[in-house]
Design a protein that fits this description.
The complex is a heterodimer of chains A (326) and B (119). With 326 residues, chain A is of the alpha/beta class. Chain A has two domains: 188 residues, 3-Layer(bba) Sandwich (FAD/NAD(P)-binding domain), CATH 3.50.50; 131 residues, FAD/NAD(P)-binding domain. Chain A contains seven helices and 19 strands. In chain A, the strands form five sheets. In chain A, strands 1, 2, 5, 6, 7, 8 and 19 form a seven-stranded mixed sheet that branches. In chain A, helix 1 runs parallel beside helix 2, helix 1 packs across helix 7 and helix 3 crosses helix 4. Chain A is elongated and about 70 Å long. Chain A starts with a strand and ends with a helix. Chain B has 119 residues and is an alpha+beta fold. Chain B has two domains: 46 residues, N-terminal domain of TfIIb (Single Sheet), CATH 2.20.25; 62 residues, Roll (CPE0013-like fold), CATH 3.10.530.10. The model of chain B has no long low-confidence stretch (mean pLDDT 96). The chains are: A alpha/beta (326), B alpha+beta (119). At the A-B interface, strand 4, helix 2, helix 3 and helix 5 of A face strand 5, strand 6 and helix 2 of B.
């Protein structure tokens, strides 16, 4: 099977890239999405704050996503959901599978990487203590609460003050949980000031800067955590330990571009961003493979993701047309 | 005269706005970079407003929940009243983005609308 342009990921980056490529004259496009629906993580970001640049109004995540999904449906751009891409070869052969088609090999003239990013898990953070149930990344908790409709816990401590952690502090509070503290190892929060204001201060949730979790307690389920002050080298200061009873620990400690497929294609990686190295046409070191959105580098705002994806779609279209001319 | 520093939540910029005021009257405001910030501060010193977003369960839909929001800002003090009322709301699929799922939430006069379509 051949396809002019295969886009890996149907979140904001993939959707905007597809629309842009279509606008630039590419008809034969296929979006591959591993989840059951298009729109990506925006669907679980039910709070507002999206779209001020793109649509000149403040939207929730699902609204922002649905506007793009509707444009993609309107343009009849083909897509497959529930479809997992397992490999991208350096010659741009994309291997993917789903229940209906089985294993597919798609020879693409160009590929746009739009896989987004993942959260830093506990295993990457060296938190001492036991390994009970009740420890989630903030984004996992967000999916449980907002999409699946389950509350992951009632008494909550959040480690890390990234935006998703701040948003989840408010979200859990609104749903009846008691968020005891947001603990940040650095002297400054990594989240937007407006989120500290409207997610923590509005609900009197304490933000403990220069603090970290130094122990997780509980055999089957989390029963508490110990929080300690850290010095300027981010080392815990003995004697400053404070115990918090809780049944849940949420982690909001950074995002990592999801680049297993990119590495598989032998693209050169940038250790600073965690994404692939790309030229000013957003093309990676592999000929015909482009990258945009959080897989390229983590963005604060989805509006910036969409903007970058529009460029990637246009550059990929230009590349495909040039190849045809040869 | 009172003095406050208010962080604007109108956009990701998060301007730090210094305001001097007497009762409900603004005497001096500095630090805002647009009209939204000015409006926000005027509300904050008189009648703080917030959007509320949440989810409600869906019956018979492709997903278990549908995200919702207050159609416009509501008084900040009513946030938990709105949340309590929302705990009783169930909707049946299909739901379209923009559909009203609860009229006049907690006596605010503001409707709660769906922010995603669920088939």
């Amino acid at each position: 099977m051949h396809c002019d342009l295969v886009i890996i990921g149907g979140g904001p980056a993939g959707l905007a890239a597809a629309l842009s490529a279509r606008e630039n004259g590419i008809e034969d496009i296929l979006i591959l999405e591993r989840d059951h629906y298009l729109g990506g993580i925006l669907n679980q970001c039910v709070h507002t704050g999206f779209g001020l640049h793109t649509f000149k109004e403040e939207l929730t995540g699902p609204e922002y996503a649905e506007r793009y999904v509707n444009m993609v449906l309107d343009k009849k751009i083909p897509y497959k959901v529930d479809t997992m891409v397992t490999d991208i070869a350096p010659d741009r052969t994309v291997t993917a599978m789903n229940k209906d088609d089985g294993v597919m090999k798609i020879e693409a003239s160009a590929v746009i990487l739009a896989m987004g990013c993942r959260e830093r898990p506990r295993g990457a953070m060296n938190i001492p203590g036991k390994r009970p149930a009740g420890i989630y990344t903030a984004g996992t908790a967000q999916r449980l609460v907002n999409i699946e409709g389950y509350m992951p816990g009632k008494e909550v401590v959040i480690l890390g003050s990234g935006d998703i952690g701040l948003i989840m502090a408010r979200r859990m509070t609104l749903e009846g949980a008691h968020v005891k503290a947001v603990v940040e190892i650095k002297p400054k929060s990594g989240g937007l000031v407006r989120n500290i204001e409207q997610c923590l201060n509005d609900f009197n949730i304490p933000l403990l800067l220069s603090h970290t979790v130094t122990k997780v307690e509980g055999d089957n389920r989390v029963t508490g955590v110990v929080v300690s002050k850290v010095d300027e080298n981010m080392k815990p200061i003995p004697g400053t330990e404070v115990h918090y009873d809780c049944d849940t620990l949420l982690l909001s400690c950074g995002l990592i571009p999801e680049n297993e497929l990119t590495r598989g294609a032998n693209a050169t990686m940038d250790p600073k961003t965690g994404g692939p190295v790309a030229n000013d046409h957003l093309m990676t070191s592999v000929d015909g493979i482009f990258a945009c959105g959080n897989v390229y580098h983590v963005h604060d705002l989805v509006d910036h993701v969409s903007e970058e994806a529009v460029k990637a779609g246009a550059f990929a279209a230009e590349y495909i047309k040039e190849k045809r001319g040869n | 005269m009172d003095e406050r520093v208010i962080v604007c939540i109108g956009c990701p910029k998060g301007c730090e706005i210094h305001v001097k005021y007497e009762g409900h009257e603004v005497i001096e405001m500095t630090g805002n970079t647009c009209k939204r910030g000015e409006d926000y501060v005027r509300n904050e010193i008189t009648y703080p407003l917030r959007m509320v977003t949440s989810i409600v369960p869906v019956e018979g839909g492709e997903f278990a929940t549908v995200p919702v929001k207050t159609k416009s800002d509501i008084p900040k003090e009513k946030i938990f009243d709105v949340m309590r009322e929302l705990t009783h709301v169930r909707v049946k699929a299909p739901v379209n983005m923009g559909d009203v799922v609860l009229k006049d939430a907690a006596g605010t006069g503001i409707d709660i609308i769906a922010t995603r379509s669920v088939k």
